[in-house]
Amino acid sequence: MIGIIDYGMGNLKSVENACKKLSIPCMISADPDALNQCEKLILPGVGAFGDCMANIREKGLYEKIIKMAKTKPLLGICLGMQMLFEESEEKGLTKGFGFLKGRIIKMETDLPVPEIGWNELEWNQATPLQKELSDHPHAYYVHSYYANAYENEDLIAYSMYGDIKVPGIVKHGHIMGCQFHPEKSADDGLRILQYFQEEV
Questions:
Q1: How many domains in the chain?
Q2: Is 21 helix (H, G, I), strand (E, B) or coil?
Q3: Lowest CB count within 10 Å: 99, 104, 134, 200, which one?
């Protein structure tokens, strides 16, 4: 069972629908006790970093998520991935969970910001996930900020947006993140969710 963490902000239903399409048992919950009964967790996210972290703290989930993530695989999606890092500079410096080293910074480019649309994933290192995806996998992004000053060994795949190297998939032990929306990224996105369910 995968627990989809409901803290009042996030693409909950689309993630749930993707899991159901893959026949992955899942539940949406804001109850730490219910989430603790799940084998794995997904942290979705839509909106501003500071607002999301404030909601998580207000609902008493911050310390609970940190505790659960010590033993349970956790997948962060979009803003949920950004919250896995140490901090974000969006609308003032805000502390994240710190599961991965790095800071979230604003995209500075002549291209439109936010980045909205499909972009190719390029591999930073060999990974079993590579064999699960198509030869030139593309993912659907919607974001204005991206991870920076991360550990290179945590970077699985990235996408180029102009001159910006955008971390697309990160992984540190059993903590995994996707800057894009796998639930909106067609077959390759679904395969990534399946990989998280089966392999992480």
A1: 1
A2: helix
A3: 134
Instruction: In whole angstroms, give the CA distance from residue 37 to residue 14.
Output: 22
Options 26, 38, 52, 78, the catalytic residue: 78
- Statement: residue 101 has pLDDT above 80: yes
- Euclidean distance between CA atoms 39 and 23, whole angstroms: 15
178 catalytic? Reply is: no
Q: Say if residues 39 and 74 touch (Cβ distance below 8 Å).
A: no
Q: Which residues are CB-contacts of 134 (< 8 A; sequence separation ≥ 6)?
A: 187, 188
Annotated active-site residue in 16, 90, 115, 183: 183
87 as an active site residue: the answer is no
How far apart (Å, rounded) are the C-alpha atoms in residues 11 and 91? 21
Choice among 19, 52, 115, 181 that is catalytic: 181
Task: Tell me, yes or no, if 38 is annotated catalytic.
Answer: no
Structure tokens at 51: 């607002």
CATH number of the domain bearing residue 63: 3.40.50.880
Cα distances (angstroms) measured from residue 28 to each of 3, 105, 112, 117, 144:
6, 29, 33, 27, 27
Domain that holds residue 172: 2-199
pLDDT tens for each residue of 157-192: 999 999 999 999 999 999 999 999 999 999 999 999
DSSP character for 61? -
pTM, two decimal places? 0.97
